[in-house]
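Re-run with default settings, no changes from the original entry. Doing this only to confirm the output is reproducible before filing.
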Amino acid sequence: MKEAFAQFGVKHFIPVSCLSGRGLPELKNLLIEVALKQRNMGEQIPKSYLELEQLVAKKRTDLLAEKKPVLPTHNKFHQFPY
């Protein structure tokens, strides 16, 4: 799979599962590693970004509490306009 996306500049490929969480620790570690190498590291994060992060986390918590899926089904995903 990694080779298929190499033409687009993809340097890493880590399969993850939103349902089981498989691969998420590896993805998190890679994201941190790559982010720390960015030249703009150390700049302040806009407050709106932090507020958005909190809203997303709250929505996920609320959905889990209501026993609703935290991600769209395959069919619903393909209905998104993009």
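DSSP finds four helices and no strands in the chain. Residues 44-82 form one domain.
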